[in-house]
Amino acid sequence: MKQHDLLVIGAGPGGYVAAIRAAQLGLNVGVVEKEPVLGGTCLRIGCIPSKAMLESSERFAATQHELATHGIKVENIQLDLPTMLKRKEQVVGTLTKGVDSLLKKNKITRYTGNGRFVGPGRVNVEAKDGVIELSAKNILIATGSKSASLPGVEVDNDRIGTSTEALSYPEVPKHLVVIGGGYIGMELGSVWRRLGAKVTVLEYLDRIFPGLDTEMAADAQKLLTRQGFEFRLKSKVKSARRSGDGCIVEIEGAEPVTCDRVLLAVGRVPNTDNLGLDAVGISVDKSGRIPVNKAFATSTPGIFAIGDVIAGPMLAHKAEEEGMAFAEQLVNGWSHVDYDVIPAVVYIHPELACVGKSEEQLKAAGVDYRKGVFLFRANGRAHSLGEIDGKVKVLADAKTDRVLGVHILGPRAGDMIAEAAAAMSFGASSEDIARTCHAHPTLSEALKEAALAVSGRAIHS
């Protein structure tokens, strides 16, 4: 039986980061991953391949509709989908190999197969060539999440599928129905809409992007509608089934929708199947998550959990932060994750990013706040880019001026939100951001102006 100081089950963003940090701190670390390729859902079939496709499709759309305004004439524009898909796979391949190299560099032992608890401190790995018995004083569960199902929707992993299939359609659908108006549906819907598909979004709620600031989500929906999306809100999907080479989606109280393909994107659920949790006395909550304390410890001594299998936003960077904090707590006895400052980004066009509280959350908590808003159409860099849609919103405590939330809908919002997160991590006020000199001309000046607007001092609006 092979032994380790720490055994990590799952080599996604949380798992491999925890393993590397623990190895840096001197532990003998082993990693169990059932997939032959490292990186987890995010790297293999999530964040990275979707962003590769978003970038490629955005360039295709820009070539069609925007280059002429820059004085660049392009004729006979054609889509080479196989090459686009190949590029996506190359990006993924490069990064997964990078994770493999990092594990080797840090002398971390890798085991390929499904890891399953067989008792306290013991895990069996069901590998191709037999069972590998492992033991460890500390075991970390970092197995991530999987796509949620929906009653009545018959997923065949072809015409009716999840984000995994939507990353690799062999041809552009004539009509794609997206069930769910969240991050995943809007991003992958954007990819295929730009490439020529009709996209219909069926959302059970009366809005898209549930959980995000209502005002910013509504603004984003208007821009997506302008881009050709069809939204059918308050739509309860009763069933979706294949019919020949197409699909039929039935909606409560409405006519059925026929389409080429269906993307089921109604969220994700913790991936705790086949872990043998019963063997070590661990039970999941009603949401399928593993309860842990502030040190990521489960109810069973020596077993910990991070990432999508525990409470909190299902985001790769949240899992990474938890992986770092877990390793440092295990070795040094102290570390933490500031859950009030976890940024989120939706990679539509323009991007939608946020960190901290929304207006709805502040109102529900009875917090008195002030708001500053600045439109990108008043920003010089946005005009030079030809990207003037959207705005920046800064929310600050009415008494202390401490920044409580920042919301950005606009060009490169995903990069801009980092400044807001850093400022909030240090307890910055809106005055602190407003008094920080920002280079000109840059998009980040819009954040400065929004901070100035909190106290009615915006210069360019």
Account of the protein in words:
It is a single chain. The longest helix is centred in the first third of the chain and has 25 residues, at 81-105. This protein is globular. With 461 residues, the chain is an alpha/beta fold. The chain contains 13 helices and 22 strands. The model has no long low-confidence stretch (mean pLDDT 97). Helix 3 (47-65) packs antiparallel against helix 4 (81-105) and helix 3 (47-65) packs parallel to helix 6. The protein has 3 domains: 2-147 and 269-337, FAD/NAD(P)-binding domain (3-Layer(bba) Sandwich), CATH 3.50.50; 160-266, FAD/NAD(P)-binding domain (3-Layer(bba) Sandwich); 341-453, 2-Layer Sandwich (Enolase-like, domain 1), CATH 3.30.390.30. It is 32% helix and 25% strand.
Short description:
The chain contains 13 helices and 22 strands.
CATH architecture of the largest domain: 3-Layer(bba) Sandwich
User: How much helix, percentage-wise, in residues?
Assistant: 25-40%
Highest CATH level, the class of the largest domain = Alpha Beta
Cα shape? globular
Provide the number of structural domains. 3
Radius of gyration: 23 Å
The DSSP helix count reads 13
Point out poorly predicted stretches.
Answer: none
End-to-end separation: 68 Å
The CATH topology of the largest domain comes to FAD/NAD(P)-binding domain
